[in-house]
């Protein structure tokens, strides 16, 4: 009994956390996401759901341990929370919130206590023949025999974990959909979207479950007042204006901090933000996106990205899908607005020309040809955009796109809106673990990240053009919202606040994604498309850039 020791354990490899073996037994992909790709977003939810805290344990004569133990022989480490002596035997205990399986312990829980027993045996130098798992939801204690078979299972699991850890490819989604319904990493893993793809391939109907949240409950904190200072007190982010009282925001409710112009942030707050998956971004006073930071990670995802992007035919296929989606959105907006403004005839020529460019995109043999068609379609779109503006808003009229610098108020507001969108897209790409500097359509011609410029194309019309045109027609923009200098127009402080409010409000609107078939806010749609893009080179291609503007 208890003679088996693992031949595969190596002192050179970092010890595996026992909780990672629990994840492995639950779903190999969960293990990979948590331990290899180091996606930490859901640690708290995952583990809080799996194990009871010491303070919640019943007082029944056991002994609480506080030390983390590590076994070089097994190559694992973990914290055995709870030990008991029964009839002279030492028994590791594990308490679970949930219910047991009908016939005993869940495989993942069993593997976990076997690992604890192995760790204790190695540490104490005495045999352990039994572990127990207490399931509180159905008030049942399950005994787990620690014998050669149990230790052999542990050895197999450790070997499998080591093999997976050396791969850059994610394992497939779990065959059992019920596992995903209780998995906190489902919004990152997107198992239902992969099943949808599989169902499309097999012409089957996928089960309709929603695992990707409709809203991101965390908000973007824009700091626009010059001289404001962002600090932190405990778990709160504190914004102190130059002349005014500090305002506090719970850190868990903040998804990003965006500093505009001369706003300051402390190093402590930056550290806190990195540790809590909160992006920090800077805009210049003129509304240009200056940069941002996010926690490191995503090594495996970047490897897959580089390898995917080295395939030219694949990049052309992605770019074609992207540009078709962009032009389809522009066409839809033009046609719908032209109808309601009674200028349908005036835009018909531009619409016909854009449709011709769409056909040209289908025939494009390389990225240059595709860029040519996309650029021409954009020119036709902007040539008639001014027809959608209420003539009474004369100060916001638009005669053509001008970028650096914007030469009229419309262009100033449009460019600032695109800069806000660019920030969100960069943040989404970094959150998904992609390298924004390597794109499949845009060329690296400026400091802007090509992959962010690629992904932005899906959202420009919906998140920026449409709300801007609507706000102009509602007479929301005033001349004093802008500063005009020789040949350039910038947003004044009030203009910046209005643009942020329009953009952030639009982002929260809920919309039904036509392909995955569920509703989500535009903010979440950016992240969803970034994740679907990542799947294009991670073994589940076909869903990216198939979204279209709603009717
Ligand atoms: S969502 Fe499903 S497939 Fe993805 S990690 Fe969780 S259990 Fe595994």
How would you briefly describe this protein structure?
Helices cover 45% and strands 16% of the residues. With 551 residues, it is of the alpha/beta class.
Chart the SSEs and their pairings.
Layout: E1 16-17, H1 18-26, H2 28-36, H3 43-50, E2 63-64, E3 68-71, E4 76-79, E5 82-86, E6 89-96, H4 107-124, E7 130-135, E8 140-145, H5 148-165, H6 177-181, H7 186-189, H8 191-202, E9 219-223, E10 229-233, E11 236-240, E12 247-250, E13 254-260, E14 264-265, H9 267-275, E15 279-283, E16 289-293, H10 299-309, H11 312-341, H12 344-363, H13 367-385, H14 409-432, H15 450-456, H16 460-473, E17 482-485, E18 488-491, H17 493-508, E19 510-512, E20 519-521, H18 522-536
Parallel strand pairs: 1-4, 6-7, 9-13, 10-14, 13-15
Antiparallel strand pairs: 2-5, 3-4, 5-6, 7-8, 10-11, 11-12, 15-16, 17-18, 19-20
Helix pairs in contact: 1-2, 1-4, 4-5, 11-12, 11-13, 11-16, 12-13, 14-15, 14-16, 14-17, 14-18, 16-17
What about the largest sheet? 5 strands, mixed
What average pLDDT do the residues reach? 83
Strand order of the largest sheet: 2-5-6-7-8
Helix content: 40-55%
- Corresponding CATH superfamily of the largest domain: CRISPR-associated endonuclease Cas1, C-terminal domain
Shape: elongated
Low-confidence stretches: 1-11, 42-61
Can you name the CATH architecture of the largest domain?
A: Up-down Bundle
Q: Could you explain the architecture of this structure?
A:
With about 550 residues, the protein is an alpha/beta fold. It has three domains: about 10-185, Lambda Exonuclease, Chain A (Alpha-Beta Complex); about 220-295, CRISPR-associated endonuclease Cas1, N-terminal domain (Ribosomal Protein L15, Chain: K, domain 2), CATH 3.100.10.20; about 300-535, CRISPR-associated endonuclease Cas1, C-terminal domain (Four Helix Bundle (Hemerythrin (Met), subunit A), Up-down Bundle), CATH 1.20.120.920. It has helices at about 20-25, 30-35, 45-50, 105-125, 150-165, 175-180, 185-190, 190-200, 265-275, 300-310, 310-340, 345-365, 365-385, 410-430, 450-455, 460-475, 495-510, 520-535, and strands at about 15, 65, 70, 75-80, 80-85, 90-95, 130-135, 140-145, 220-225, 230-235, 235-240, 245-250, 255-260, 265, 280-285, 290-295, 480-485, 490, 510, 520. The strands form six sheets. Strands 2-5-6-7-8 form a five-stranded mixed sheet, with helices on one face. The chain has a four-stranded mixed sheet with strand order 9-13-15-16, with helices on both faces. Strands 12-11-10-14 form a four-stranded mixed sheet. Strand 19 and strand 20 form a beta hairpin. Helix 14 (about 410-430) packs antiparallel against helix 16. The chain is elongated. The termini are far apart. Mean pLDDT is about 85; it is low at about 1-10 and about 40-60. Iron/sulfur cluster (SF4) binds near residues 29, 174 and 186.
């Amino acid at each position: 009994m208890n003679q088996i020791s693992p031949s595969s354990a190596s002192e050179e490899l970092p010890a595996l956390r026992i909780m990672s073996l629990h994840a492995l037994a639950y779903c190999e992909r969960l293990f990979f996401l948590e331990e290899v790709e180091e996606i930490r977003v859901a640690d708290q939810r995952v583990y809080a759901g799996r194990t009871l805290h010491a303070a919640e344990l019943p007082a029944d004569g056991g002994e609480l341990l506080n030390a983390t133990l590590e076994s070089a022989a097994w190559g694992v480490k973990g914290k055995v929370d709870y030990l008991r002596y029964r009839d002279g035997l030492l028994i590791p205990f594990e308490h679970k919130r949930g219910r047991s399986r009908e016939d005993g312990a869940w495989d993942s829980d069993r593997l976990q206590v076997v690992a604890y027993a192995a760790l204790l045996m190695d540490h104490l130098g005495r045999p352990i023949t039994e572990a127990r798992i207490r399931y509180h939801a159905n008030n049942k204690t399950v005994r787990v025999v620690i014998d050669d078979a149990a230790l052999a299972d542990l050895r197999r699991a450790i070997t499998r974990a080591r093999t997976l850890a050396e791969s850059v490819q994610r394992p497939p989604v779990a065959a059992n959909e019920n596992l995903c319904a209780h998995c906190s990493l489902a919004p990152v893993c997107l198992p239902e979207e992969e099943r949808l793809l599989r169902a499309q391939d097999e012409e089957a109907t996928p089960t309709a479950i929603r695992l990707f949240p409709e809203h991101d409950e965390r908000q973007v904190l824009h700091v626009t007042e010059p001289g404001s200072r962002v600090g932190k007190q405990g778990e709160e982010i504190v914004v102190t204006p130059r002349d005014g009282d500090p305002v506090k925001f719970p850190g868990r409710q903040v998804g990003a901090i965006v500093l505009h112009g001369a706003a300051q942030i402390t190093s402590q707050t930056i550290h806190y933000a990195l540790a809590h998956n909160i992006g920090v971004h800077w805009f210049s006073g003129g509304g240009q996106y200056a940069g941002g930071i996010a926690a490191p990670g995503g090594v495996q995802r970047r490897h897959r990205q580089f390898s995917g992007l080295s395939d030219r035919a694949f990049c052309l296929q992605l770019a074609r899908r992207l540009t078709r989606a962009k032009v389809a959105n522009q066409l839809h907006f033009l046609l719908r607005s032209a109808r309601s403004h009674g200028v349908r005839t005036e835009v018909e020529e531009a619409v016909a020309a854009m449709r011709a460019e769409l056909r040209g995109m289908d025939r494009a043999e390389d990225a240059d040809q595709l860029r040519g068609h996309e650029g021409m379609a954009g020119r036709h779109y902007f040539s008639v955009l001014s027809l959608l503006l209420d003539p009474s808003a004369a100060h916001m009229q638009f005669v053509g796109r001008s970028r650096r610098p914007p030469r009229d108020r419309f262009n100033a507001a449009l460019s600032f809106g695109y800069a806000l969108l660019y920030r969100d897209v960069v943040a989404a790409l970094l959150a998904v673990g992609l390298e924004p500097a390597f794109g499949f359509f845009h060329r690296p011609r400026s400091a802007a990240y090509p992959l962010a410029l690629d992904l932005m194309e899906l959202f420009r019309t919906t998140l920026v053009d449409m709300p801007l045109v609507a706000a102009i027609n509602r007479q929301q923009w005033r001349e004093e919202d802008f500063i005009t200098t020789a040949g350039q127009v910038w947003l004044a402080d009030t203009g910046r606040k209005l643009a942020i409010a329009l953009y952030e409000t639009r982002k929260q609107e809920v919309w039904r994604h036509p392909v995955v078939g569920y509703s989500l806010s535009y903010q979440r749609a950016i992240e969803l498309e970034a994740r679907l893009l990542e799947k294009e080179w991670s073994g589940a291609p076909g869903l990216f850039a198939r979204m279209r503007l709603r009717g």
